[in-house]
Design goal:
By secondary structure, the chain is an alpha+beta fold. It has 5 helices and 4 strands.
């Protein structure tokens, strides 16, 4: 079981996004979208957005839905948006937070580096906020009893 508070706490420490490298296929995949048996170590993609403009981000969200780029690469959303409760500190209205899970690092990177995301989705993100995006090894966040 993934302990989401650890991911959330780690997210606060991010400094900036890194530049991505050219697309590389997911191991064992002819098209680079389906993971094979070597894709067994799950990862979590964490996106923190400051100064988020929800109205101007609507076309970005629509492009994500229309292209289905996350699911096409084995990803699924764990959490999107604002917290249910702020238990400590302040959560500004202009902050957004997204958690996505992928079957492995290669699948997440394939989505991020894909032509679909880079040319048909990501351009709609420009000017919608200040994004920090990082990938975490989800296996390291499992409870010891989960195997």
């Amino acid at each position: 079981m993934i302990r989401l508070p650890l991911i959330i706490a780690a997210c606060a420490a991010f400094a900036a996004c890194q530049t991505v490298q050219p697309a590389q296929p997911v191991p064992g995949s002819a098209e680079g979208t389906d993971a094979d048996a070597s894709c067994t170590s799950p990862v979590v993609l964490v996106i923190l957005v400051e100064n988020f403009d929800r109205e101007s981000a609507a076309p970005y969200a629509e492009a994500l839905r229309e292209t289905n780029v996350v699911a096409d690469h084995g990803g699924r959303y764990l959490s999107v948006g604002r917290p249910l409760h702020v238990l400590e500190g302040v959560w500004p209205d202009a902050r957004a937070f997204v958690l996505e899970t992928y079957p492995c690092e290669a699948a997440a990177l394939q989505m991020w580096r894909s032509e679909t995301y880079q040319t048909r989705v990501k351009p709609f993100r420009q000017g919608t906020g200040d994004y920090t995006v990082a990938l975490f090894d989800a296996a390291a966040l499992k409870d010891e009893g989960d195997g």
